[in-house]
Structure formats: structure tokens, C-alpha cells
Specification:
Blueprint: E1 5-12, E2 19-25, E3 29-36, E4 41-48, E5 52-59, E6 66-78, E7 89-97, H1 101-113, E8 122-127, H2 131-148, E9 154-159, H3 165-172, E10 180-185, H4 187-198, H5 203-206, E11 210-215, H6 221-226, H7 231-240, E12 243-252, E13 259-261, E14 264-268, H8 269-276, H9 286-297, E15 302-309, H10 321-324, E16 356-357, E17 363-364, E18 366-370, E19 374-376, E20 379-380, E21 392-397, H11 402-411, E22 425-429, E23 431-436, E24 438-439, E25 449-450, H12 453-456, H13 459-463, E26 473-475, E27 478-480, E28 485-497, H14 510-527
Parallel strand pairs: 8-9, 8-10, 10-11
Antiparallel strand pairs: 1-2, 1-7, 2-3, 3-4, 5-6, 6-7, 12-13, 12-28, 14-18, 14-26, 15-16, 15-17, 15-23, 18-21, 19-20, 21-22, 23-28, 24-25, 26-27
Helix pairs in contact: 2-7, 3-4, 8-9
Domain DAGKc: 118-255
GO molecular function, one term: lipid kinase activity
Pfam family, one: DAGK_cat
């Protein structure tokens, strides 16, 4: 028998039968061969390493006696090949009774050496008790903590108690005591964690702390983009500890703190619908559909100019760094580097080449910058987006016809083809400068200021029914003041926890593909039982 093979009696959750079995620890999976009936047929069950979230040695509940020769493997199993389907995942166990304690110990050590068992890490778990209309605490108590109990991870749990509490926590957490910051909530608390980490004096160290999410909000766009809408799969992802690089957007305004985004920025109809949907949180994910339909009926036209910088791979090599940026001061070391901060000066009417104005846009009905494929749990925007390719993707439209806007939201919300209709135009960008026609806080009329009267109050503008107030600037579901705004991308700035089988269709990620194959093969083997 090879060092990776073992003999044990095996049983599985939901099955009473105990069988003598041959165990094999392979490259990506634990394989269990057990006799089936009296005709010498064999049942094969595969447990992919990427689905194992922990183990325990068995304890007699009556006597408290520990059976060190009995190992219970905890893992997530799928009922079908769609690993993103939240209803396909469930927790289950394989109970393995070895003849000797030494065999059990050797099995555990071999499994650990092969990466079958989670690597011990230190997790700070932030639970928003108000997330998802109060369901976050229930998810933490019934799913997350029970799975973490068997993981071997060191976990500290903390509830958020007020708005932006996660910013305060992340900005002060002792980085020597934590490896990952994980939120049980919606996208908003993860947004706060990112801003807390990047606002620290030691941000360059803090950014390397991995971040993760267990979806418990009403939007859950990040979880949907990562394929972890299932709380079981999301918690498994946290435990396994696989990470991927994550691009971050920075949003700068004059004399205001910088804001960081991992998900989206929007202005116009989609921003209005997102923020106004807060009034319908009790509807869950449906709140975005309701608010969006209302805003389509009452569509607004926002005046402004938007300039874009081509991504680096599209820029003319003859354009020198001296032309693009002024000399940098040492202060850039206090935060992620900004190359174009000088463009926030209102005396600069338009940025120099290679920046260019989006053409023929007297006003916008919607403008959307995305870093992830989903804009909500139920809205799959496009599969052309990758969250770690160093490119910003901008969609914009001046369309005001109700039926034209309604069509993609009816037919294409979940198929990734919203951008394939002619409603929106798109650009790849390395930077964006937005100059709105009206500035100020949308809910405070005393702050409203018309920047360009020709765009807003002229007879031509009034003939087009241009909106006279500032539009909402929406960053990851949070409102920021409407003002001259510079958006820059910071490629691969942070690390986010992802399933081990996650890869983009254009990636040459052989390891992730191998994990996916192992999971699919396990599903097929299970379906044959």
C-alpha cells in the first residue's frame, strides 16, 4: 500500500451503512472506494480538497471519551455542476474509522501535507447585525461559526455598531494579530473595510491583509461576481484561504478625503435607483428592480463633461511620463499613489492629451464604472469584466426613451448581455475626470452651485429639460458629494478571498481549472450512487 493509501471503515452523512473502504489521497481529492452490495461492485466517492473546510476526531457525547482513531471530514458537496447556484451546495461529512490511532494520525498528517486541510490562519469576523434586514447575525450563528469551528482557524468575532464602524475597526486593527478581515454583511461593510485599511499610515502593509465576504446583505454584488452567493461556499472560501489580486479605484475631490472602491461608481439613473432603493430594503434584492423601474419612468438628464485616459496598453509609447504627470511630492507615500491629482484644479478647463472628452454628450442619463461582472445579486451585467486586469470599464448613455432603457433590464438582467444592446456605449480607461454641471450635496440645496450655466440654465439646456440639481454620485452603494472628481485605478492593490476553482474564461490558470475539474468529477460520482 502506498503512503497515500489507507484502509478504514467509512460512513457518510445521511447513510446508515458502514463499509470497509480503501482511501486514497490524490493531487486534488480524497477518493473513497467502498464495496457496494454483495456483487463485488464498488462505490466511489470523491471529496475535492477545495471543498474540505475542516475535520475532527470523534468524541462520545455520552462519556466525553475521544476516539482518536475516528476522523470526521467536514466538506461542502454540490448537487449539480453549476457551482454558482446557491441552492446546489450543502454541508456534509465523511466518517472514517481507522484500525489504529497511528493510521488516523498518518492520514491527517498526509492530508495536511497535500493541502487537503485548511491552513491555520487568524480571522477577524465583522458581523453587521442589521445587514440584509437583520439576517447577518442568523447566518453567522447558523452557518459561519459552525463551519469555522472545525476549520482550525483562530477567529475573533465583532459586531458593527454604527455607520462606518468597520472603517474605524479596519483603520485601527493590529495587523500582527490578523491575517484576514472578513465581513458577514453586504457590499457596504466590505467597502468600509477597504477604506479603513487604505486610510492607515501603514496602508502599504495593510493592503496585503486579505479581505473576504459572506453575503448577508440585499445587494451582494461582490459575492455574486465571485460565485459565492451560497453562505456555505462563501464560508468555505474564507476557510480555504485562496486569494486573488483585486484592482481598486480611488476617487479624489478637492479638499476632501480620498474614497476607495472595489465595485462600482455610477452617476445618473443607476445611481439614483441604487440609493433610492434603500427605501425598499425590506424587499431584499427585489428593491433594485422596483427603484429602477420608478426611475426609468421619471428619467433625469444630468449635465456634465467626462474625460477619459486610455489604459496604459493603449497609450502612445511616445507620450512621456513628464507629459502625463507633474513631479511627485513625498506626500504620495502616505496613501496609494495618485498621478493626476493636479487635474482637480478648476482652473484646468480640460486635461491634456492623451486625455479625451467623451464625444457628443450634452448630458447623461446614466454613467457606470464597473470592476466586477455583477451590479447586484440578481443583475449579471457582463462577463467581459475582470477585477484584476488593471483596466477600468466605463459604460454611458444619453438615452431617454423609456422603452429603450427598459428592454435590457427586462430581458438581460441575468444573462450577462446587458451591454450587447445599443443602449450604452463603453470605453476601456486608465483614468476618468468628471466635471458635473451642478455641484453640491444632492439633499442640501444650500450647497448647490451651477458650474457651467451653458450646460444647465441656458435656453438650450432648458429645452432639453436638463436636471437643475446635482445628481447622485454613488460609490459601492454609498453617496459622495457631487463635484469635480478624479477616478484612478490601482492595479492588484489588494487581495480578496476566492474559491479555489475560480478563474476567468480567458485565464490560463491551470490550478484553478484542475480544482474545478475535481469538483465536477465528484458531482458526477455522487450522481451515480
Amino acid at each position: 500500500m502506498s503512503p497515500n493509501q489507507f484502509q478504514a471503515k467509512a460512513s457518510f452523512a445521511g447513510h446508515q451503512r458502514v463499509s470497509d473502504a480503501r482511501l486514497s489521497l490524490g493531487t486534488h481529492e480524497l477518493t473513497i472506494h467502498a464495496p457496494k452490495g454483495s456483487d463485488n461492485n464498488t462505490t466511489t466517492i470523491q471529496v475535492p480538497y477545495s471543498c474540505i473546510y475542516g475535520y475532527e476526531t470523534s468524541t462520545d457525547k455520552a462519556t466525553g471519551e475521544n476516539y482518536k482513531n475516528k476522523v470526521i471530514v467536514h466538506y461542502v458537496a454540490f448537487s449539480g455542476p453549476d457551482l454558482r447556484n446557491p441552492s446546489a451546495a450543502k454541508r456534509t461529512t465523511a466518517q472514517l474509522l481507522f484500525e489504529r490511532t497511528e493510521d488516523a494520525d498518518r492520514f491527517i498528517q498526509t492530508a495536511r501535507d497535500l493541502g487537503a486541510l485548511p491552513t491555520p490562519r487568524r480571522i477577524l469576523l465583522l458581523v453587521n447585525p442589521n445587514g440584509g434586514v437583520g439576517k447577518a447575525k442568523r447566518i453567522s450563528d447558523t452557518v459561519v461559526k459552525p463551519m469555522l469551528q472545525h476549520s482550525g482557524l483562530t477567529v475573533k468575532e465583532q459586531y458593527t455598531e454604527y455607520g462606518r464602524h468597520a472603517v474605524d475597526i479596519a483603520s485601527k486593527v493590529n495587523l500582527d494579530e490578523v491575517d484576514s478581515l472578513v465581513v458577514v454583511s453586504g457590499d457596504g461593510v466590505l467597502h468600509e473595510v477597504i477604506n479603513g485599511l487604505l486610510s492607515r499610515p501603514d496602508w502599504d502593509r495593510a493592503r496585503k491583509t486579505s479581505i473576504g465576504i459572506v453575503p448577508a446583505g440585499s445587494g451582494n454584488a461582490i459575492a455574486a461576481s465571485l460565485g459565492i452567493v451560497s453562505q456555505f461556499v462563501a464560508t468555505l472560501t474564507v476557510i480555504r484561504g485562496e486569494t486573488s489580486k483585486l484592482d481598486i479605484f480611488s476617487l479624489s475631490q478637492l479638499n476632501r478625503p480620498k474614497i476607495y472602491s472595489m465595485l462600482s461608481f455610477s452617476w445618473g439613473m443607476m445611481a439614483d435607483a441604487d440609493i433610492e432603493s434603500d427605501s425598499y430594503r425590506w424587499l431584499g434584492p427585489l428593491r433594485f428592480d422596483v427603484a429602477g423601474f420608478i426611475r426609468m419612468i421619471r428619467l433625469r438628464r444630468y449635465p456634465g463633461k467626462v474625460y477619459v485616459l486610455p489604459p496604459k496598453h493603449q497609450q502612445n509609447p511616445s507620450t512621456t511620463e513628464q507629459q502625463l504627470t507633474p513631479p511627485q511630492s513625498p506626500s504620495h507615500k502616505r496613501e496609494p499613489e495618485s498621478q493626476f491629482q493636479h487635474l482637480l484644479d478648476s482652473n484646468i478647463k480640460e486635461p491634456p492629451k492623451p486625455w479625451s472628452l467623451i464625444p457628443n454628450m450634452p448630458f447623461y442619463s446614466m454613467l457606470l464604472l464597473l470592476n466586477c461582472p455583477n451590479v447586484g445579486e440578481t443583475i449579471f451585467f457582463t462577463d467581459t469584466i475582470r477585477f484584476n486586469d488593471g483596466i477600468m470599464r466605463l459604460w454611458y448613455s444619453a438615452e431617454t426613451r423609456f422603452w429603450k432603457i427598459l428592454m435590457p433590464f427586462i430581458f438581460d438582467q441575468q444573462n450577462g448581455k446587458m451591454v450587447e444592446r445599443d443602449l450604452m456605449k463603453d470605453l476601456e480607461c486608465g483614468g476618468i475626470l468628471i466635471i458635473p454641471g451642478v455641484e453640491g450635496k444632492p439633499d442640501d440645496p444650500s450647497t448647490h452651485k451651477v458650474i457651467e450655466p451653458d450646460w444647465v440654465t441656458s435656453s438650450a439646456a432648458k429645452a432639453q429639460n436638463i436636471y437643475q440639481n446635482p445628481g447622485l454620485f454613488d460609490v459601492d452603494g454609498e453617496v459622495m458629494p457631487t463635484a469635480r472628481t478624479l477616478i484612478e485605478i490601482h492595479p492588484s492593490l489588494m487581495n480578496i478571498l476566492v474559491p479555489e476553482w475560480l478563474y476567468h474564461k480567458d485565464d490560463d490558470n491551470t490550478t484553478a481549472r484542475a480544482h474545478e475539474v475535481a469538483v465536477i468529477q465528484a458531482i458526477k460520482a455522487q450522481q451515480k450512487l
